Amino acid sequence: MFGFFSSKKVVAFAPVKGRVLDITEVPDAVFSQKMMGDGIAVEPENNTVVAPCDGKVVLISSTKHAIAIESDGIEFLIHIGLDTVELGGRGFEVHVTAGSSVKQGEPLITFDKDYIMAQEKPLTTMMVITNMAEKVKSLDKHLSDSLGKVLTVAVK
């Protein structure tokens, strides 16, 4: 009646096809200790990162290895690989621009798996919520479905 028991929810799907892991399993303390936020990681089977939900592109790193999408105030950062910032953008192709609206499943970035692996960079791709404290009431993880929903976020 007054909205006391209702909460806006954002559902996010895996940003890339592959085996889904909890963020705490990532072999990098910045992610596994949730310094950037809570979320999931994926061991990619393909080379295309897609929008995990409908939203707006709010950041594309100059080195093309990371992108952020905002949906209903929730900011999802997708970070492709570990230490891939060191590649200076080589091996990545961005398909959207900052400020553009995207739909869930829309391609955002493609990456050259062979090139990145040849540079000895793990392909583990993280998706974290960077504004947990300010915007997230609760977070439910669904780690068993690499193409289905992986996060359900209740917005504050």
Topology summary:
Layout lengths: L8 E5 L4 E5 L6 H4 L5 E7 L3 E3 L4 E6 L5 E6 L2 E7 L11 E3 L6 E2 L4 E5 L1 H6 L6 E5 L2 H4 E6 L7 E7 L1
Antiparallel strand pairs: 1-13, 2-3, 3-11, 4-10, 5-6, 5-9, 6-7, 7-11, 8-10, 12-13
CATH T-level fold name:
Glucose Permease (Domain IIA)
Q: Which architecture name does CATH use?
A: Distorted Sandwich
**Largest sheet: spatial strand order:** 2-3-11-7-6-5-9
User: How many domains, as an integer?
Assistant: 1
CATH H-level superfamily: Glucose Permease (Domain IIA)
Jot down its keywords:
156 residues, mainly beta, 9% helix, globular, three-stranded antiparallel β-sheet, single chain, seven-stranded antiparallel β-sheet, Glucose Permease (Domain IIA)
Please, could you describe this protein's structure?
This protein has helices spanning 29-32, 113-118, 132-135; strands spanning 9-13, 18-22, 38-44, 48-50, 55-60, 66-71, 74-80, 92-94, 101-102, 107-111, 125-129, 136-141, 149-155. It is built from three helices and 13 strands, in the order E-E-H-E-E-E-E-E-E-E-E-H-E-H-E-E. The protein has a single domain, classed as Glucose Permease (Domain IIA), CATH 2.70.70.10. The longest helix is centred in the last third of the chain and has 6 residues, at 113-118. The relative contact order is 0.28. The strands form three sheets. A seven-stranded antiparallel β-sheet has the order 2-3-11-7-6-5-9, with no helix packed on it. Strands 1-13-12 form a three-stranded antiparallel β-sheet. Strands 4-10-8 form a three-stranded antiparallel β-sheet, with no helix packed on it.
